[in-house]
Amino acid sequence: MSEPIITFNKVNKWYGNSFHVLRDIDLSVKQGERIVICGPSGSGKSTLIRCINRLEEHQQGHLTVDGVELTDDVKAIDDVRKKVGMVFQQFNLFPHLTVLENLTLSPMWVGKMPKKEADEKAMEQLKRVRIAEQAHKYPLQLSGGQQQRVAIARALCLKPKIMLFDEPTSALDPEMIKEVLDVMIEMASQGITMICVTHEMGFAKAVADRVIFMDQGQIVEQNNPHDFFNNPQSERSRDFLSKILGH
Amino acid sequence: MSAQTFQTIAPRPAPIKTEGVLAWAKSNLFNDWKTALGTAVVGAVLLALLPPLYRWAIANAVWIVDSDVCHAASGACWGVVREKFRFIIFGRYPFEEHWRALLSTTLLLALIVTSCIRACWKPWLAAVWVAGLAVYFCLMRGGVLGLSQVDTDLWSGLPLTILLASLSMTMAFPIALCIALGRRSGMPAIRSLCTVYVELIRGVPLISVLFMASFMFPLLMPQGFSIDVLVRVLAGITLFAAAYMAEVIRGGLQAIPKGQIEAAATLGLSYWQTQRKIVLPQALAMVVPGVMNNFISTFKDTSLVAIVSLYELTGAMGMAMNSDANWRPFRIEGYLFIAMIYFVFCFSMSRYSLWIEKQVNKSKLR
Predict the structure, then answer these.
(1) Which of A123, B215, B246, B330 is the most exposed place for a label (fewest CB within 10 A)?
(2) Strand, coil or helix: what is A221?
(3) pLDDT in tens, B115-173
(4) Would you say the C-alpha torsion B216, B218, B220, B223 has a positive or negative sign?
């Protein structure tokens, strides 16, 4: 058994004074593990994964990512962000840069990689997400599914150890969801640690090692997908599953 | 359901004519009774105004340089512009040295035009500006290479307008950028400093800023220490324009979605890298019309320096007219002439603004 790559130890977070969004979160993620987090909206799923690369800061408890504890220390934050890639619901591509420039920006400016090398590496990633022919277009000229695949390729250019997905398919038309999920499934087979907030239960069944169900800032239940879907332990998760799988 | 046979429909002409002068007039001028009424009213006003204007400006106008003929005529006296042309354009700058002002201003305009071309937005442009301005000041001020010295208080007319406007705009822009970023800074001290600056400057008229720069500032300086009036006025206009421009730029910064900054953060970009590569390129592209608005009003605001005894285009025109009793009655023609000059510059700026807006927003085209 390898050391956990991410550890949440009694992590608490509040928005303002009164909204207790994460409550006593204890969680450890093993290297190469693929985790799907689900739960009703407002349950703290997104906040939880956004804490991992410090887009949100927690106020209590300890959060360690690949041996580095996240504190106010800017150096530690930079360190962690180099190891963690993130894909957003709204893609967040840079609209004023071409697809290729979106991918090479960080390798060239943060990684100090020469342009030629960065371009080559970026093209490799674009081929991996099957979108190389769009390299010189601008993001807004692509469909939603294509944009999200570019966003995945952009995150992969940093060679992250951990990939975070924050509802990557929620803003997509139904017919585009599959092309994005296919890319993610392929990634999952390559041993990268993945944490994915999603309601795509088919994806969870296909690739997840563990499903985590959250409600009201707490982890209610976690289990392997087979047992989670067939035999949910808590009343709350049974109710949730009946709603999203019911139709 | 039985199978249907496909039949081609032959093209027919449109039932209503949509092309040609008559069709255009019908759809644009007499669409319904309200439009027709509007057309009639505007038409009547034009009919009442245009003939007298034509008689004054062209039919009865005097084009020769003769003030007696002008006094007798009922129309405009364009001769005054020919007579006073060089005084209006160059003001108090020594007559025999006008070529120097002309040459240096042409150089300055060439610098400005070069800076307008996007392909020239490279680091070497700064060096070209430094070199260009050095040549400019040598030519304008003289005192070197056998050129007679012309002190800055004699610099006037259109060259002074162009100098004040272009230098204050180029300096105001980076200051405005810093203030706009400062007002969104996470550091409270910087944020309040920038806010106080903007509110203070916006709270007073430009005239009072110029007045302070010109008359109050020297009183605060130690004895025997003085800064050239041109420099002080330039600083006043620059700081004034920067406060307004900062707010326009801040508007653009506010419009950048938070997700852009988060994406940059997850990619490991630092604060300055994020601003430079992600936020500013998008924000500035959005505020082109607003910033150009600032530029155009700064260009025209330079006419206010007359109150501190610097005679740029407007001041030079007034001086040229007032100094000669023969031609004094024809200031209107003089004002129309400089209005035309202002218009040419401002209109060029607004056309350029449209062009550059298209250039920087190319990525939004689908």
Answers:
(1) B215
(2) strand
(3) 888 888 888 989 999 999 999 988 888 888 878 888 888 888 999 999 999 999 999 99
(4) negative
- Residues near A134 by beta carbon (within 8 Å), at least 6 away in sequence: A99, A126, A141, A142, A146, A150
Q: Which of B17, B21, B16, B48 is closest to B40 using CA atoms?
A: B48
φ, ψ of residue A220 to 5 degrees: the values are: -85, -40
Residue in chain A nearest B283 by alpha carbon: A96
Q: Which of B353, B312, B342, B130 is nearest to B210 (CA)?
A: B312
Instruction: Mutation target for B interface from A46, A49, A99, A105: give the one with most B CBs within 10 A.
Output: A105
- Contacting A with CB below 8 Å, chain B residues are 257, 259-260, 262-269, 273, 277-278, 281-282, 285, 362-366
CA distance A11 to chain B (A): 21
Contacts of A141 in chain B (CB under 8 A): 365-366
| CB–CB contact A85 B363 (8 Å) | no
* pLDDT for B12: 85
* Nearest-angstrom CA–CA distance, A200 and A88: 15
**Residue B254 phi, psi dihedral angles, 5° rounding:** -65, -30
Give the one of A82, A92, A158 whose C-beta lies nearest to B260's C-beta: A92
Residues of A in contact with B264 (CB under 8 A): 94
Cα–Cα distance for residue pair A207/A210, rounded to 1 Å: 9
pLDDT in tens, A158-177: 889 999 999 999 888 888 89
Average pLDDT of chain A to the nearest whole number = 90
Please give the pLDDT value at position A243: 85
Interface residue ranges in chain A relative to chain B, Cβ cutoff 8 Å: 53, 55, 78, 81-82, 84-86, 88, 90, 92-98, 105-106, 109-110, 138-141, 154-155, 158
Question: With bands split at pLDDT 50, 70 and 90, how would you rate the model's confidence at B265?
Answer: very high
Mean of the pLDDT values across residues B232-256? 92
Inform me whether the pLDDT recorded for A150 exceeds 80: yes
Q: Is the pTM of this model over 0.80?
A: yes
Sign of the CA dihedral A234, A240, A243, A244? negative
Say what the pLDDT of residue A80 is: 92
What would the two tokens of residue A201 be? Answer: 């239960």
Q: Do A88 and B263 touch (CB under 8 A)?
A: yes
Phi and psi (nearest 5°) for B100? -70, -40
Query: For position B365, what pLDDT does the model report?
Result: 59
Residues constituting chain A: 247
Mutate to test the interface with A, among B118, B363, B366 (most CBs of A within 10 A): B363
Instruction: Give SS3 for A164.
Output: strand
Return the residue matching tokens 């006037």: B156
Strand-pair category, A84-87 with A34-38: unpaired
φ and ψ at A210, to 5 degrees?
-150, 140
Burial of residue B152 (CB within 10 Å: 0-12, 13-18, 19+) is middle
**What pLDDT sits at residue B46?**
94
At B1, the pLDDT band (50, 70, 90 cuts) reads: low
Number of CB atoms found within 10 A of residue B182's CB: 20
Q: Report the percentage of chain A scoring pLDDT > 90.
A: 62
Its ipTM equals 0.91
In this complex, the residue of A98, A110, A141 whose CB is nearest that of residue B267 is A110
